[in-house]
Amino acid sequence: MADTGDDSLNNTLFRNWLKVVLSLRILASGLTHFVEKHCKQLHRKLISKAEQISNSTLTSCSQCFVKTILPWHVYKNGGCPAQKTAGVRCRCKTHGAHVCPTIGEPCSVMHDLIVAYHHSHNPLWRNTDCQSWVNDYWSVAKCYLSTTGYASSTSAADMDCTGLLSLCINNDFLRRHIDDISNFEKVRNWRNTLFHSPNLELSESDMKAAIQDMINLLKDGQDLINESAAQSVAAELSKITSEDFVLTLAESKKMLFEMMNAIEYQKDAAIREINEYTDTKLDDIRVEFVKCRGQVLDMEAFQKYLVETYEKYYIKSDVSPLFPEEDDNIDDLYVSLKMERRAHTLGKEKTLTRCGADIYKTRTSEVAEQLNTFEELFQKNGERVENIFIVADAGMGKTTLCRKITSTWCTCYDEQICNASTENSVETTMHCTDAVRKISTGNQQCMLQFRFLFYVSLRHATTEHSIEEMVEHQLLQEKHINLFHSILEKIPQQCLFIVDGLDEWKSRANEQKSPKTIDGLPAKNCKCTTLITTRPWKFAEVRPRTSDVDSEVHLKGISFKNASILAGIALGRLNKSRGKCLKVENFIAEIRKRNLMALVGSPLMLKLLLCTWFDNNNLPGTKTQIYSTVVKLMIRMYTEKRGENRDQETHKEERHLEEKLPFMLQNFSEFTSHARMLLALGEFSFKTFVKSNTLVFELSNFEQYGMTKKDTRAFLEMGLLSKSRLRTSSVTSHTVQISYIHRSFQEYFAALHLSGHQEQIETILAMCKGSRRLAEHQGILHFTSGFEPKIVRRISEHIYKDGSEDDTVDDAIYTIVQKTLVSCISEAGLLRPKPGSVYIKILRLTNRPDLDMLPLINPECVCRLDITEHVQLEMKHIDCIFAMTNLCHLVIMNDNKVLKSNITVALLQTCIRLKCLELDDYNFLNVSELTILPISCHLSYIRLFRCQLTHSQITSMICDVPTLEDLKLWTVTCEPDRHCGCLKQIKSVSHPKCKIENQKEDDARLESAGNGLYYLKSISVSNCQVYESSGVFTHLKDSNSLTCLKVTDSTIDTSFLNFLGQCFRLEDLELDFVAFSGYSEGCTLNGGSLQQLKLNDVDIDYRIIISTINGCNTTAPLDIKMNHVRLIGINADKFKCLLSECNGVSIGPFSGNKDYVQTTSLKVVNERTDLVGKTDVVHEGSTTKDVRTVSETIITEIAPGLLSRSVERTSKRVHCVLF
């Protein structure tokens, strides 16, 4: 090449770069005619197709812009093509777009056709003008460009190579006339490489490759090969690569100038595009801002409406149930409740994540997490909790907690409340310590996460099916409904539903069911946080799915300290309203004296006790007496307030009816003088409870049961009933409803009716089909037992008979049943049932009241007994337990030595009908008996946890019980005893009752034993599960029952290996996390029937595996799977080679490293392999050449055993899992 006189052109790499740039410019002239010709053909084809679609001649449009065109497929309700192409956003979703208004809709129709011919269905619209699509072919062609900057282009002649290449690549019509599109893509890549080169250099090889790709493009075999212009350009490009080609200085400067202009033009075009895009987005933001601003104002107004509604109707609480008209702000009457979040865990000390944890699932325990703040209530592990269930008995503070949460939310969003909250009353200030203030501030911060709170009372929800419907009916006005649903759709995480009183709600029988809903729960159609309160019996009845309960929180009432504080606050209000000056210290002293601390844990009971004490400084003993005293006070206050003077005729009528009152009420004039009213209210309470189980009534309902309007008004004035107005969607009308002040008062009066109509107790018991429904009526049963103690026996008889027929009743329900019986007996007081008259099927001893009930129980009807570690048994209790001769299931948790080992063994010897036995934390090493089980027992299930036994005891348990099917041993330690024959271990055993009396005799007997064991036994258990235990299989000889065995987390010795070799029906064997302590010649894992072997995280001598393969005698093949197996005596590569030389062994994918086999699978057919005789030779630690081979071991030891014990296989698979 001649010298140009420019220093930069002396750079060979720069000259190469210039040659390729020049080639691209020349290439454009070779493509111009090809592109222009086919673009015109495409335009004619699109116009023809568009006229067919619109059924009219297309005319130019002067009204549309590309940004506002609505595609034709939207107008015709057709499917959107963008749905089938990822990453493509169709213009049919553009806000404000419209169909072309010109006749034939040319813009809309052409839009869809242009998209259809784009290779990726994603045209670039910024280079084109839709108003020219009908008449200008090039306006349509520019839709297929990949970059902007070509808006002013009018034909292919004024377009550079970059635009022509992108047009050919993106247009499907042009691609049909191209044989190899990859050449176009290669040239496009070379163009990008040139223009993005920082130093404008290119190697010689890349230069020639780039120009050759251009020549290949022009020589495309379909159309371009026949284009004379294209072939002329191809010949010219060939000259550029030759050494004789001269590039002048003028040409070089001209190309650089053109390139710089192109770059500058593209930069300006990019800036314009960015500015246009920015302006468009700013306009969208302005529109959205105006829209959102209006929504925010509406939300603020809605929020203010909710706060005002709650302040007026929801955040007040009565000082006492006796004086409902005297209410106060909930913040002044609230004390902290004890809240516990329940979580089920496996085991008492640890939860295992590896295999074997399922063994302990039979003994799950509940872990209670104490909750002190709202943040802990609404969050778990730092994450939002969606579904929260508050579970507590009546009067424990469920509604009070809901009102406190509502009040705290109102405080956060109402400045007036925030300012007023700093002015606390004297009583509040007294108990508002720094810790309480800190919790209060934290609660307010927590409630800020909820922009909206919706409070629903299920007591007043009679026809609604979903929570959203209840909110609309109870809270909202008509103008709020649309905004309410919009909020739930857009910000559900910032909304809180409080749903109070699930046990007071009855779902509609004809409501629609779906997999999304649960019977007994109101439906919810959003992801809002939901807090639902309920009683335990209702929670057990509904049984929500685990996925529907994110947090189960139980209220345990209030602590004695907080009870004293609440009593002081309430007493201060009562003193002020009644003109007294009683001291709370005297009330607390009376509570301590009467040993009623357990009752004051319930806020409701505390208030009732306080009212009772406030009136006459005396406290009754039972719950029935307390409620009777409270009702008596209500009647007295009503009589004094009304100045009522009963006439003589009315007095005679009441005297005639007073005999129908319970005996305990007949000595009080308040009851006898109003007997008719009380009996009528009792009948009404009983029949409505049985019929509808509702708390809310219309005025007309009372007249149906003999109650006059005067009676209803009297009970309303007494405070036993309350009248409320139900808020509806109408702002001009309300619905008046009457309800009891608390559900427990309805139960009290229903029990009052039952005491005089004892035959109707059968109505209650008959409708309680299943103990689950009985738990629902436990309140009535408590009060009935207080009025008529003899009823306790009839209740227990019904539970016993019903439980015997219903096998589906679970342990949780029986716990509620026992709790019901204990409380009924307590209510009976001194007139409790006679000893041995109470029937109960399952008995759990967990606390002192359970022990007090023991003498009253008929011991012959107890089928299951659970003794927990929380009780201390006395001799009278043990005598009652020994009288239970029909026990089928016995569970003893002996953590605190509740029952000594020798007493337990004596108890077991009497339980001849026992089928299931579960023992925890027992040491039987000091027990002299060789077996702890009855001589002729029928046990089918045994579970031992953290127990110590002798070899004789565990061997007898596994081998001597023919009915035993399931044995679970968890951390069980077995040690030698003087009878088992393990002489080498006898000296290390020190048991006070196991003294060696004749050492010489033992030595002589041991010598005659030969192998160090006095005896070996055959296992009779069907399913055995053992975890982290030792000495269990020391004296086991063989088994004809096991077909499936699993061993986890154990060390395997030769005794267990010998046992495995004699399990003749063993088909499936899995070893996990197992280490083999040694190897003796002939050890095998195969008893002759093995078909499946899995080894996971096992340390094993490779010869054991070889012996196992050699022992394959079944007609079915043996499948072996190995994962993370450490081989002893050989490395992985040699082990693989050894296996590959064997006939009948096929090896799957094999992965090994040194002495580890990471993963592999083997299949062994039933023919003999070549492993016979190779075992000891290959073993690295072997020093003897002349040793007995594996085949000899099989012939002399294994085969005779197989022949002598050959039996036909059965179809039954027996599983044994050893952990």
UniProtKB/TrEMBL annotation:
Top-level taxonomic group: Eukaryota
> Keyword annotations for this protein?
ATP-binding, Nucleotide-binding
What is the official name of this protein in its record? NACHT domain-containing protein
Q: Give start and end of each NACHT domain.
A: 386-504
